[in-house]
Write a structure and sequence with these properties.
Among the domains are: 122 residues, no CATH class; 247 residues, Cytosolic phospholipase A2 catalytic domain (3-Layer(aba) Sandwich). The strands form 2 sheets. Strands 4, 5, 6, 7, 8, 9 and 10 form a 7-stranded mixed sheet that branches. A 3-stranded antiparallel sheet has the order 2-1-3. Helix 7 runs antiparallel to helix 8, helix 11 runs parallel beside helix 13 and helix 13 runs antiparallel to helix 14. It has 37 helices and 10 strands. The longest helix has 23 residues.
Length: 813
């Protein structure tokens, strides 16, 4: 555009009408209606009417007034200052314009002509077919000249009109190109992309469907970056495009720069795209990319993507070409949420990857305290050396930043780590083996002292007991050799049952025997009841730890009271929908529940054995009709667990049952009473041979909350606003105190149980770590729960002598 133009390219018009210009700032020139255009021959400046050069466009020289007078009514196309430029453009327009106004009158509308003019000027290399696609007038594609240009690649990008139609998302134009112009779908542009690549980058999936109706090699062709249309769709996160491509039989097994299409979906965290690929070809979940030999799980960047793969059966411990697992990669990338997802699905925290490094070795260089805690909580060995003989503690002292080094070393010291300097490179010596492979309960880090009953490391106890009697022999000989019974009692506490799980894992690891084979009686309340059933059904505690971390997000959704459906589905999934309590006989298990269909409420025990006959006088006269409890042989396991865990305000009652924690949050005394009544019943029935004296009682808690001061519990009739506020606050604190007192599993309940055991010569162990914060029953934060388990690990190490004594007694015949 110039301030003083001298040359104009225009169309001649018949008649003048006072309307606005096309869009060029020039003295008013009338604008035509479609039928007013005159297709007369017009002459460039200096040519006569008999010239052989004839064009259906006008080149007017404003220096020649006679040329203006020749056509008093004009439609101006554009204006230029230099004559040479005007002549060049005039020649170009004289070729490009005729096919359009010859095939469609729509081109003669002001808006269309303006658009066409701009297109010709802005894309001088485009063919008439390219212009027709962008103009979007279907009739133009029936013109012979435009049909001849249908596969033209003469432009900067090397794209065909079909490419443009796909990018634009115009299905009608695409149909014209394919049906009337016979456009080829496998032609590539300068970047090696076909029409399918362009369609994927657009927003109209119907265009892709139209392309897919005809078989074409372009569907699976790779561009210059090695990407098929499916790779590109996965990278861009276009789920609908992925769906259409898969329905058109796009191949999932073509390797691209990031691997297969599923790797692209994982790399860019597009869950829906990955799910559709797996649904179409389930083998893709195990595919390895060519560069790293990594599975899709290695490429997961967040917990949601990782869980999606793990739920579909992806190998959580699969390795890449370097030997690293997905957990190694997540730690290296400092992705805590992904680390937690992998750990809760069974990732091996001690897997050795490249250079013999475990995930804990790698975590030390990241200075991420929460990640280090999570790995150790899930079983990472703190003194395992890598190929250079370096332990995680040594790496922390060598690499970590000064501000966090002391913190990390203190963390490791709290669980018994050794951060001495590594040995020189070479084969591990006997000293290295001794120094780095030990139990968390070991008090010394040098060569173990001579074995004696008074100075015996827990690892040595484990070794001797295993050498003397393998675990399977201990299990099979339990009834024949053990002369006394062992009782395990598990408190209630919601998701804090993870603390119990961590304690049981430590006991199993130290003893080398499953919990089921260490105890003859197991009693549980609420979450403790669920764990008691897990023990009964031979579920490992490591598995239950993972299940609890996954279950909390399913069950504790929304606001209280929570929907019971997710909890019930979880219980059915874990224990079976039709499994009965008596289907598994050993060990004997009892779960506490509260019968709430009467006042006062009564404690009920769900058993996997026949209840002992009661010979004492009933507490209440039976003058009302109450439904008798379901017999153990008919009691469904999942219903028993649901009834024991129906915590008021958290879940609705399960029929007539409320949470057993209302009457027996610490079930120790009730379990001991039940065992005594059971033995007395056996004696009355003449089966004294089945009676065994209780010798060990182990009571596990869900963590002790810190004690905090209470300022006011006074509830009275207020006489002013200040007293009203004080009364409300006091009522709130009093209500909380009443609930805490009713459900307190510690305090006098523990003192009474300990005193009872001491009076009758029973060994009593109460294991319950002190927690730094008050954790709610429905806590869902991974960080909060990992910290609770970390405090449990520290507790285990600090009380290693007590654990040592307990293991000795449990393994004794």
């Amino acid at each position: 555009m110039f301030a003083s133009p001298r040359y104009l390219v225009a169309l001649a018009l018949q008649g003048a009408h006072p309307r606005s210009e096309v869009a060029r700032p020039w003295p008013p020139v009338p604008v035509p209606r479609a039928h007013e255009v005159v297709n007369a021959t017009v002459y460039p400046s200096g040519l006569s009417s008999d010239s052989s050069l004839q064009h259906q466009a006008h080149f007017l020289d404003f220096r020649n007034p006679s040329s203006l007078a020749l056509h008093p009514s004009l439609l101006r196309l554009f204006q230029l200052e230099r004559e040479t430029d005007a002549l060049v453009n005039f020649q170009h327009y004289s070729i490009q314009l005729p096919p359009f106004y010859e095939s469609s009158s729509q081109v003669l509308h002001v808006e269309a002509l303006q658009q066409l003019t701009d297109l010709v000027r802005s894309h001088p290399s485009w063919s008439a077919a390219h212009l027709a696609v962008e103009l979007g007038i279907r009739e133009c594609f029936h013109h012979s000249h435009i049909i001849s240009c249908a596969n033209s690649r003469e432009n900067e990008e090397g794209c065909t009109p079909l490419h443009l139609a796909c990018r634009k998302g115009d299905g009608e134009i695409l149909a014209e190109l394919v049906q009337y112009c016979h456009a080829q779908m496998d032609v590539t542009d300068n970047n090696g992309e076909t029409a399918f690549h362009y369609a994927v980058q657009g927003d109209n999936s119907q265009v892709l469907q139209l392309l897919g109706k005809n078989a074409s090699a372009g569907l699976n062709r790779v561009n210059n970056q090695g990407q098929t249309p499916l790779h590109l769709a996965c990278q861009m996160g276009k789920e609908e495009m992925v769906r259409v491509l898969l329905l058109c039989n796009a191949r999932c097994n073509i390797v691209g720069p990031s691997g297969y299409p599923i790797h692209a979906a994982m790399k860019f965290s597009h869950k829906g795209c990955a799910e559709m690929i797996i649904s179409m070809d389930s083998s893709q979940i195990h595919s390895k990319d060519p560069r790293y030999g990594a599975s899709p799980l290695h490429w997961a960047k967040n917990a949601e993507m990782a869980r999606m793969l793990l739920k579909r059966g992806c190998d959580v411990n699969g390795t890449s070409s370097s030997g690293n697992t997905a957990l190694h990669v997540a730690v290296m990338r400092n992705r805590l949420d992904c680390v937690m997802a992998l750990l809760t699905y069974g990732a091996n925290a001690n897997a050795r990857g490249e250079h013999g490094n475990t995930p804990l070795h790698l975590a030390m260089s990241k200075d991420n305290v929460e990640m280090i805690k999570a790995l150790i909580v899930f079983g990472a060995e703190v003194d395992t050396p890598n190929d250079l003989g370096e332990t995680p503690a040594f790496i922390a002292s060598k690499i970590s930043k000064l501000v966090t080094r002391k913190t990390l070393l203190t963390l490791l010291k709290n669980v018994g780590a050794d951060h001495r300097l590594p040995l020189t490179q070479g084969a591990p010596s006997e000293q290295c083996s001794t120094a780095t492979h030990h139990s968390l309960f070991s008090q010394e880090r040098s060569q173990p002292p001579p074995i004696s009953l008074n100075n015996l490391e827990l690892q040595d106890i484990m070794h001797i007991s295993r050498a003397r009697k393998p675990a399977f022999i201990l299990s099979s000989m339990r009834d024949e050799k053990r002369t006394h019974d062992h009782l395990l009692c598990l408190d209630g506490g919601g998701v804090k049952g993870l603390v119990i799980i961590q304690l049981l894992i430590a006991i199993e690891k130290a003893s080398g025997v499953a919990t089921k084979d260490l105890f003859d009686w197991v009693a549980g309340t609420s979450t403790g009841g669920i764990l008691a059933l897990a023990i009964l059904h031979s579920k490992s505690m490591a598995y239950m730890r993972s299940v609890y971390f996954r279950m909390k997000d399913e069950v504790f959704r929304g606001s209280r009271p929570y929907e019971s459906g997710p909890l019930e589905e979880f219980l059915k999934r874990e224990f079976g929908e039709h499994t009965k309590m008596t289907d598994v006989k050993k060990p004997k298990v009892m779960l506490t529940g509260t019968l709430s269909d009467r006042q006062p409420a009564e404690l009920h025990l769900f058993r996997n054995y026949e209840a002992p006959e009661c010979v004492r006088e009933p507490r209440f006269s039976q003058n009302i009709n109450l439904k008798p409890p379901t017999q153990p042989s008919e009691q469904l396991v999942w219903r028993a667990a649901r009834s024991s865990g129906a915590a008021p305000t958290y879940f609705r009652p399960n029929g007539r049952f409320l949470d057993g924690g209302l009457l027996a949050n610490n079930p120790t005394l009730d379990a001991m009473t039940e065992i005594h009544e059971y033995n007395q019943d056996m004696i009355r029935k003449g089966q004294e041979g089945k009676v065994k004296k209780l010798s060990i009682v182990v009571s596990l808690g869900t963590g002790r909350s810190p004690q905090v001061p209470v300022t006011c519990v006074d509830v009275f009739r207020p006489s002013n606003p200040w007293e009203l506020a004080k009364t409300v606050f006091g009522a709130k604190e009093l209500g909380k105190m009443v609930v805490d007192c009713c459900t307190d599993p510690d305090g006098r309940a523990v003192d009474r149980a300990r005193a009872w055991c001491e009076m009758v010569g029973i060994q009593y162990f109460r294991l319950n770590p002190q927690l730094g914060t008050d954790i709610m029953l429905d806590e869902v934060s991974d960080t909060v729960l990992v910290n609770a388990l970390w405090e449990t690990e520290v507790y285990i190490y600090e009380h290693r002598e007590q654990f040592q004594k307990l293991i000795q007694l449990l393994l004794s015949p």
